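agent> fetching stored inputs for the arginine docking request
agent> found them:
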Amino acid sequence: MSLWGGRFAEGPDAALKALNDSLRFDQRLARVDILGSMAYAQAIADAGVISADDAEAIRSGLAALLRDVENDDFPSLASDEDIHTAVERRLTEIVGAVGGKLHTGRSRNDQVATDLRLWTMDALDEIDGLLLGVQRALIGQAEAHVETLMPGYTHLQPAQPITAAHWLMSFFWMVARDRERLQQCRRRTAVSPLGAGALAGNPFPIDRHALAEALGFASVSQNSLDAVSDRDFVAESLFTITLTSVHLSRFAEDLIIYSNPAFGFVSLSDRYSTGSSLMPQKRNADPMELSRAKVGRLIGHMAGLLTTLKGLPSSYNKDLQEDKEALFDAVDTMRQLLPVVAGVIQTLHLNPDRMRAALSDELLATELADYLVRKGIPFRAAHHLVGEVVQFAGQRDLPLSEIPLERLQMLSDAFADDVSAVFDFRLAVERKAVVGGTAPQAVMAQIAAAKALIDR
Ligand code: ARG
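agent> prediction call returned; pasting tokens
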């Protein structure tokens, strides 16, 4: 039975029903829809619109329905247009005609906005918890590799030596900003639209604040036209999730490169690696490739929703029904991905010997320039001089540290015996001791700050 048949002489065409019905995907809102209805029944009873007995009958019917939903035993029918229709139909089957009083003053427009916000608040909390797991895994690995030296890259070209802990922790801070965004997004989601009606507001004197509080919202919407059509929280959730996955794709790319035998810096545990059906030697980082790839569909969902919202006339339009599949898939994608990412990190094997072996003297060219600066040479001139040293070394195929002092002194008399101390990767790293630098002491402080942040 549809909720709106009165004025129609015949029912909808089957093809329209297939296009229009949303039960197929919005049945995931069953739980929050029922909770919203329980609170709403109480609100209209408190406002004197229905009797306390009617409210109690509706509440107990909804409670029975909630148990069915929780037991995965909710008998929906092909004729149910959406989850709101299905819940009201089923409620009326259980409690009789009194079930028909529940929707007094309410519209599916404020109802669906309420449901989706409640669902999103839970989903954001869940993703936040999963990201915390990723952060803990990063800290765990970083703590074991504060002293592990590796090449740092810019433009993916060897740049300066860093510690492996510093590399790992760089992703911690990306995730920290992602979590901050999720939590801020959740605050903007926790605004109750219930009481906005179809578009103009509820005609009965319900206490919207009490209703909001009963459902776990922090505040109520201030404009009913806006409230029924505001999907900013979906767009923001999609953006936040997408940016998170952009970060994960960058981590994934590093692991794909570093696990290539040409680098050999890391290897993924067997539990998180895959093989080839043809080439017996293969060990592929499929989880990281999928992590890199998922961004595509997430950007698609985000761009799709923004396109749907653009130019919509005021208040509710059926276009808004398109918000759900995008959001559900984005959340499901994170639910699938994040435990794997955390597992990959926890079980990742770092190979300090291979990292160390990849440290070449050219990573110390900047140290050599800094050495000249300490001798009083302006940095720009020092940079040029060291460029000549690098060119000379390249022509002779010599590591920088093996160029004879006399040869260096032909370029500048600032070079002295103590230049040999420049060619020490550990000292080069230890010098980057400012806050946020790669020196082990600084990284230890960074890890302490990270722990304080997640324990807050
Ligand atoms: N299934 C609809 C949605 O997801 C529910 C709201 C329908 N409202 C309406 N006036 N037809 O948006």
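agent> quick read of the result: Residues 22, 26, 82, 108-109, 112, 316, 318, 320-321 surround arginine (CB under 6 Å).
agent> awaiting further instructions
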